[in-house]
Structures are given as C-alpha cells and as structure tokens.
Amino acid sequence: MDTNDWNDAEQRVERAQELFEQHKWQEALDELLLATTINPYNGGWFFNIGLTLDEMGRLDEAIDAYRRSLEIEPNDIQALYHLGADLQHTERFAEAIKTFQQIESLDPTYEPCYCGRILCHAELGEHEKAEEMFYLARLYKEHCPACYFNMGCSLAARKQ
User: pTM higher than 0.85, yes or no?
Assistant: First the structure.
C-alpha cells in the first residue's frame, strides 16, 4: 500500500465521521467499507462500521463488524461492550454474558459489563446471578439507572 492509498483511506474515514454526525448512515458506511478495503488492519475502522450498522438497525452485521474489530484489537473494551450489547439485543444472552465476562477480565471496574449481565441473566431465568451482577455493578457506580431498571425487570419476572 503506497502513501496515496493510505491518505485516501484516512480521508474516507474522516468523511465517514462527518457523514455519521449528519446521520447519513449509508453514505458513512460506504466510506468506511471502502477505507477497509484499502487498509483492512485498522480495528477502529471496523468498530466504526459496527456503530454505523447499529444506527441502521442492522445488528447482525454490526456483530460481525465488532468481531472483525476484535480480531485486530482483541482487548478493545468498547468493541467488546458493543458486541455484548448487540448480542443481548438479538437475544443471544449466553454469548452476551461471555462477552461481558471478557470485559470484566480486562477491567473489573468497568460497570457496564455487570449491568449488561443483569438483564441477560434475568432473561435466562438466572435471577440470583442477576442480583449478584447488580451488587457488583453498584461497587463501581452506585446509581446506574439501567442497572436499577434491569434489576427491577428481574425481580418482576421472579414473581411470575
């Protein structure tokens, strides 16, 4: 890859950022995809593809993009979190839990990895585990509205 190709890829990513901020999802996606054909070794660009696909509601494709990002940068907590969230939203709860656990192994203070597991465990009927995740989340962020909501859902389901 020569310098002109590298510059073209960088310019496409910058243009994609502008388009993303303007909510022009498809155009942003097209620019990012072209950039990754020029340089397929930038995990951040695949992460941005995932974010763009999320905005478009194309969660299965976003999951693939986050996985591609993680092949390049396996310890990227943001990519792991978004992967876990999309797995959760597509009702792949066991897989989401494993992804959130991977985040915990990298950074045990990252509260969203516990918050996401509250809902996953609740959906799987594992309410005691959901409660455990709630208390772990509170160690790092005492007043997380999402954690309280997710725990409320678990408690409501437990009564049924």
Answer: yes
